[in-house]
Amino acid sequence: MRFEGVGRRYGPRGPWVLRGVGFALPAGTLVRIGGGNGSGKSTLLRLVAGIDAPGEGRITGRPARTAYVPERFPAALPLTAAGYLVHLGRIQGLDRRTARARAGEWLERFGAAGYRDTPLAELSKGTSQKVAVAQALLAEPGLLVLDEAWTGLDAAARTELDRAVRERVAAGARVVFVDHDPRRLAGEPDAAYEVTQGRVRRAEPAPVPPPRLRITASGGTELPADGTVEDTRDGRLTLTVAAEHSDKVLRTLLDTGWHIEGVRP
What is the CATH number of domain 212-264? Predict the structure, then answer.
């Protein structure tokens, strides 16, 4: 898939939001898009997904099955969660039986199976976002475009979306994403691009942050100097600490009367 001299503006006399965009998206690649608020990131993603057409230049080689998760999901539709997913699956070329089965599978994976018969308008923002992500994955797209798709998801669903992205890339799909968290899929993108003043330039890969661990403990009173305390309610401590310092922190906690309940990434 290639962008050649692509530009986009809204209205025949409007200012150019993007111009002179040129890059390639080979199969089986993960690409991160960065840039400040209002820089044109969402416009670029809409061009990638085929939602918008370029005002100049051309885009070639877009896969037949393309899926897009917008920054804002239109939840006020007269359908249940499962009904919406089946409807979208049918539009994407799945037969009804397959669409229904995959709808159930993805709702289960994202922890929303209990809401399959709930009207979209009655879903919480987080559950609506799970449905938005599920619809993009139903038909195993060759191009997956994610605009802040992790926002609003709980930790388990964010991890599941990370896993789904890796699955699509491993299957040969192109995945293009924007996310405000610099740690999102850190070290994994094959390329990164920065949108600045209407131009898209290749960015240096973001450094991989050091691994961190979350420690839960109870029964003590003295807080350790290292790490970030997330919670101290009900006599339980939740602490995030760099993995390289975890042994020292654990020893300090044990020496000051804490009972270690768990350690996880």
Answer: 3.30.1490
